[in-house]
Amino acid sequence: MVEMRLWNPHVKLIEDGNVSTSSHDTSNPAGKKKDDLHTMKSVVAALETIAIMLCCGVFLMLLLLCALSRGSSLMNEEKAVAPVLPPDGIFSEFMIFSEKNSRKYGSKDEVTKRLDAYKSHSERIETWKVSKEHGNVEYGHNDLSDWTDEEFENSLMSKSFYQRLRKNEFLKPVPESLAQMKGEAGAPFPDYFDWRDRNVVTPVKAQGKCGSCWAFASTATVEAAWAIAHGEKRNLSEQTLLDCDLDDNACDGGDEDKAFRFIHRNGLAYAADLPYVAHRQETCRVSSNWNTTKIKAAYSLHQDEESIINWLVNFGPVNIGMAVIQPMRAYKGGVFTPSAEACKNEVIGLHALLITGYGTSKDGEKYWIVKNSWGDTWGVENGYIYFARGINACGIEDEPIGILA
């Protein structure tokens, strides 16, 4: 191996390109000059070699970087062999629905289950929009849209409860002194009336996947009656009835007669003290020290439009029960007028609600203003439905109840 010297302390370059030796070496000037030239050539050759090596190194480095870049690109291409296709319309709608309603599905199977339920419900909504079988009604999605049919039906009361409703023990007939009143100070009934305008009705709540509509309707009736009688709105606890009213069946249904009897005797706790959990808890945690809300009396009203309006205008909202058909699940507006055939052959369960008022549409359709317990994304005006009035559609005028607090 040849050792290269890159610098000679006895040699220096001068501006004219000649080589000059050190002033200390004066012997044999001609030979010295020749040696110096030879040394310079060696230095230049060495520098050229180094430059070539550096260029090769840079070139190799660039090749390596290109290879790495190409490898990364190939990996990305490999990942993209099966690209994610743009979601179809129904999937996009479902994702928006899930985000809007703060859904957190626990697994892929759960996502598939909910998507299938949403898709099926969407298809039925389109069918109902076209058919107009139940009046000029608007349909659309709400918080119930990813429920299966079984879950929705389980949130209703069994049809067998209909036979029990007439076997009242606590409810009494309306006394004549209360039945004969008409309007305010004997005036005719107004064309439109709604207790919400008088600020005595609490906001709509959500019963969830629990057949506790009976508890929600009873509690809503008491809340309104108390506000009318005492000038104080109270947010009361439906959970009181689920946990403590053992004559009823919590999420498996109940009837208003037993519920109002319990409230008359024991009262309802505040919702803040006993919040709703959508199932019966092991113990009744209502304390004797709590300030519970009780009622004085509950009356079974006559089964006709005028009797319901009479109580509504003079005393307060009216508790009612009715049969439910599937299209009601997607109600979004208009006067819902279920067909007689559907009310006879397509009933999926029973439901308890609260009539807060009544009116007539611009097309002359008479309706009840009904507060539901399916949350504030359902129906109109944050949880309400305009339901056909005066024709007892799906039994809405069969079991009216009025209470005094």
Automatic annotation (TrEMBL):
PROSITE patterns: THIOL_PROTEASE_CYS, THIOL_PROTEASE_HIS
Gene Ontology MF terms in the entry: cysteine-type peptidase activity
Name of one Pfam family that matches: Inhibitor_I29
UniProt-recorded name of the protein: Peptidase C1A papain C-terminal domain-containing protein
Domain Cathepsin propeptide inhibitor residue range list: 94-152
Keywords, in A-Z order: Disulfide bond, Hydrolase, Membrane, Protease, Thiol protease, Transmembrane, Transmembrane helix, Zymogen
Domain Peptidase C1A papain C-terminal: 189-404
Highest taxon above the source species: Eukaryota
Cited InterPro entries: Papain-like_cys_pep_sf, Pept_cys_AS, Pept_his_AS, Peptidase_C1A, Peptidase_C1A_C, Peptidase_C1A_papain-like, Prot_inhib_I29
A GO biological-process term: proteolysis
PANTHER family: CYSTEINE PROTEASE FAMILY C1-RELATED
The organism of origin for this protein: Caenorhabditis auriculariae
